Amino acid sequence: MTPTRSHAWLSVAALVACLIVGCRRNQGNGPGGGASAPQGHVPGAPPTMHLIADVSAGEWRMPAGDFGNLRYSTLDTIKTTNVMNLHVITTFSTGIPHGHEGQPLVFGNTMYVVTPFPNNLVAVDLTKPGGAVKWIYEPHPDPRAVGIACCDVVNRGASYADGKIIYSLLDATIVAVDTETGREVWRTRIGDINRGETFTAAPVIVKDHVLVGNSGGELGVRGYVACLDVRSGKELWRAFNTGPDSDVKIGPGFHAFYPKDQGKDLGVTSWPSEQWKLGGSTVWGWISYDPETNLFFYGTGNPGVWNPDLRPGDNKWSSSIVARDADTGEARWIYQVTAHDSWDYDEIMENVLVDMDYGGRRRKLLIHPGRTGFVYVLDRETGELLSAETFEPTNWASGYDLKSGKPAEDPAKHTHFGTVTQGICPSSTGAKDVIPSAFSPRTALLYIPAHNTCMDYEGIEANYIAGTPYLGADVKMYPGPGGYQGELVAWDVARNRKAWGIKDARFPIYSGVLATGGDVVFYGTMDGWFKAVDARTGTELWQFHTASGIVGNPITYLGPDGKQYVAVYSGIGGWMGAVAFPEVSADDPYAALGVVGAMKDIKKYTAAGSTVYVFGL
Amino acid sequence: MSSASSGLVLACAVSAIVGASAPPLRVCADPNNMPFSNAHGEGFENKIAALVARDLHRPLAYFWLPQRRGFVRNSLDAGQCDVVVGVPASYGRLQTTDRYYRSSYVFVSRRDRHLRIDSFDAGGLRSLKIGIQISGDDYNNPPAAQALAARHLVHNVHGFTVYGDYSKPDPQREIVDAVADGRVDVAIVWGPLAGYYTRREPAPMDVTPIAAAADSPVLPFVFDIAMGVRRGDTALRDALNATIARRRVEIRQILHTYGVPLR
Known about the structure:
By secondary structure, chain A is mostly beta strands. Helix content of chain A is 6%, strand content 35%.
């Protein structure tokens, strides 16, 4: 509850130091924290490229660094010509050897790190060498949440606002911690672990609203986004993703683009009986926000329950992209990416927002690299699908009809209980998972951390849950065609095609990506390499082997000395990465929900870790 | 005769000595999952665990963890404990002993309704509200869910989570309560749950077993239940098999006490 170490004087000293050296950093309230990036444009970008919000330019105040989820920083000291000189400046351990997804924040002269469960918040003084800890806030979440979380006890990061660091605890609680003192300002329990809800997603703060979604689709919970008051933590509203229009906040202002997504109470009528009450469709990925239209965007998870034969209908609003008013939560439009999911293709992936030339005119785009293997490009004002093209081997559908917004599915790749379906691509882990892409306005390329795995959905095996025997499908995952498992894909958004890719023969890419004004793209691999590549050509420029596999997202910032640094977590874990843990048997291809088949070599290459790396020139 | 008696006495003496210093039998169990187990030792798996520990002359110790996804990984495979008292005998995630009971899924209804549902093809089923437990856990479902779906009986099906409300002492009881208070007409429940909770309802209840292959040969409703140990732990498996053989009558008595429908 209280910080174990609190040195408020340090920050005063830091502030004085900052004044003396003359900080280059903007200390204002802009989300990206950058004065050097005039809103709407970044140096070197085509004149028709318009950014809807400040991108990061010194600090890193929110999960993606910016509201548009670009994960792009204007910092350009580290560039293609000198990145080979990058070296470790400092490392420090969080002490929790579980999957380190997410990313640190940097605000002022402090780096803030949320650990996996028990979700401690560590404040590190950047004015001192050696990862000097200012304080550690220990929230002590309910330990029963550990048994409920599906896929390791990860956390996907925090947001800064109003003098507070705000983030989720696994036990369905949101906390706000004073940036200076490390003391808890408020703590709000918004979900119930007794009903299977956990929270792993990073909140995003829009004006006075903390927006955050729930996890736990595996346990038959009902997905929603909650809005909390940034000052008090009081819940202001909650918008569900299943159920009647009143719960989903669908009213007169709702205008879905396609007839398939229009109609009254589809969140009820597209389900049998009252199954929408256990209908999953959770929000465990990323939220983006467009200040110009005041809409926020997120994707929803797969529908519950697993067997699609049990839920005839479209199962709305599972596996959908949702646009809502940031003040009221009222839905503006929803586009369901896959109806009646039968592959576990959550669509909780990031939605990258940018205005650019597309199809001959400037469009307000939402770019969603999907778990399905397709990159979806939508008009974010209307929800119209402008393009859907595959970025990895995909055979569940041959393409999308832009007139109807529907995929052309291959019925032979549908899963049915008791039926063998072989060679479904991508596998349940998708052509990418929650791990986020980056977009560079300078290159107009989206850098996608991709997977190439397929799966066999085989027979029946007995399982047991809470003492009751159940029947499950044997799902076995394995590398897809082409002899590689992961790929950093540079996607040319305007041309709807891959510009280049860097293949990883051994493992899926499960690290987030960072793009910079120095035309360098950073990402990591599951066997622990942290890499820098040329944003234009994909040429590998530098790499460093960290202590554990990387499943976190790199960030960049200006230190108190005015120099550019790059930070990333090294700590394997998460759904696929958990195979590295000693207690998961690599001999059983069906373990860890089938991913062992694709990950069986991971133990040879890495082991659990808990290190924050900071690199500089 | 006399040599046998003296052998028995000797065995007891040895076991008493061993019992004082023997390592505990470490059981992985859910602290709140009646009628199987709870932290007060009130479930039938608790009673069986105590019986087994006595038989092996080892003290009993528990590692408590809710039985969710990752239960085996985080308990047995993590080395926190050595035996799970009740798992399907065909459960491939661990090494199983011989079965020590066989039960089935059952139909549960109020006796005063006179529904007489004994098959998924019963004529009245389509017009009834049917309760089932569902897990939502990826790829897993109770067999009844599959059987109903195959008959397109989905619009009158009401799902209850198998986990129930874990803040209450009987998380899995709600589906049986729902039959008693009329929220659903008939529930399809794993036998041990039905046997235990129907006895606690004020109204008399009918509990009707479902035939082994009520739906198809690949969709069983009858399960052999065994104990589970870590793969490769054949020594403990063999010891447990010997105990199961020796204590068959007492185990059966415990199951009867809890109303477990046996096949």
